[in-house]
Amino acid sequence: MLYTIALVLIILWLVGLVTSYTLGGFIHILLVIAVIVILVRIING
User: Are 37 and 3 in contact (CB under 8 A)?
Assistant: First the structure.
């Protein structure tokens, strides 16, 4: 579940980069959260 959410956040971030449509720092905060979730999932197995 968390992995899916993180994947969606990363995809949205990439779409934001491609279309140059960003919400300021908000989208980057979502990216950081997504990366943290992925790292926690990898560490926990």
Answer: yes
